[in-house]
Amino acid sequence: MSLPMPADAAPDRLRAADLSACLPATAEVVGGRLLVGGVDLARLAEREGTPLYVYDEADLRGRMRAYRESFSACSDRLPAGADVVYAGKAFLDKAMVRLVDEEGLCLDVSGGGELAIALAAGFDAARVVVHGNNKTPVEIAEAIAAGVGRIVVDNLAELARVSAASVKAGVTQDILLRITPGIHVDTNDYVVTGCEDSKFGFTLLDDVAFRAVGTALDTPGVRLVGVHMHVGSQVLDVRPYRQAIDVMCDLLARVRDAYGVELAQFDLGGGLGVAYDAAERPTSVADFVAFLVDGVHEACAERGLAVPHLAVEPGRSIAAVAGVALYRVGAVKPLPGIRTYVAVDGGMSDDIRCALYGSTYECLLPERADEPRDCVVTVCGKHCESGDVIVRDASLPEPHEGDVLAVLGTGAYCCSMASNYNGQPRPAVVFVADGEARVVTRRETYEDLLRRDVG
What we know:
The chain has helices at 41-48, 57-73, 94-102, 112-120, 137-146, 156-169, 208-217, 240-259, 285-303, 316-319, 353-357, 446-451; strands at 13-14, 28-30, 33-36, 39-40, 52-56, 82-87, 106-110, 128-131, 150-153, 173-180, 202-203, 222-228, 265-267, 309-312, 323-335, 339-344, 363-364, 375-380, 389-396, 404-408, 428-433, 436-441. By secondary structure, it is α/β, with parallel strands linked by helices. Strands 5, 15, 16, 17, 18, 19, 20, 21 and 22 form a nine-stranded mixed sheet that branches.
């Protein structure tokens, strides 16, 4: 697969058109070299070292604004309004938190560590939504002490923990109940969350969720304000969302009729997919939001419900394509008649998605970004695992030892799932904008690895 030059493009300045869905918004090829945010990626790798994760700040801001503006465009059907809640699990550091804050989004945290990052960055706890299927008593107490806006309760044991912590603190905590709508979506089984066989949420089977609503309404220290659902992640066909909305609105109508309460909030979760492959064309943010709003509006009208305050929790669809991982090629190992392995100086310690999910990406050589990508290779890492693969059957120009290699679409669930396997320090993270690059998370050192070892 080559990078065709548009007919009207100057030979020294072109857009990698066939990869446009996978590239950050400001990506361009100038004189054969790939720039993002006006920064030459190969030169940045030389300066900051590799592995290196680079985020296009303009792209991140643009995607956040796209969600806000899309809800604004539907305001006539949203009498109670809507929140865009960035899912921090996709990628989170203090710089990202500040970006979320500046763009007016709320923040979804999963666990005490993510909450600590948010608070350290000065984020308003009242705009924080706390997630997780087994929040510890300590994490719950920390969240309540911080004054978080909403806690999404996953099970009855957790409801009891939130109640106890709230009563002890002398406050009433707003909560949502996470409901499993029993809808299967077409995505990797490891990221399906809305089917009945899930560790997340209250099942609708045997009236478990319905009874849980009644229990929550009678539980001291908490105020049940709404319900939450999440059907899965990397969803390219959004039609199952409408089925899930109908199921949830059925529950809301039944709660109204049985308990005399119309719950005022409905969190639809996240899950919108992105283009990891050049051939993929996911639903746009605007179309996704309109589809959700129309679905809720119609479902509520059919059941005589007031349209509740809505929320969505995008993570991947904000962070993934905005991020590029840079590596240095080490060994190039042809296996005649089998494949060619291209080993880089990172791997599953900084990007475990291929090993975990069988995920795929598009790749480029930033110093030769306009050359035909007519070699098929497998990009592998440096770790002592046969499954340490970053991209199987990647299309590249012929790679050589010492080349910088860019893996596209790595902004979500790579850094956030990074480890120190084989004693590998975690990579640095850089934000680029307007020709400038700033390190927002420094590279780990061996001293960092040893600091926790008190043996």
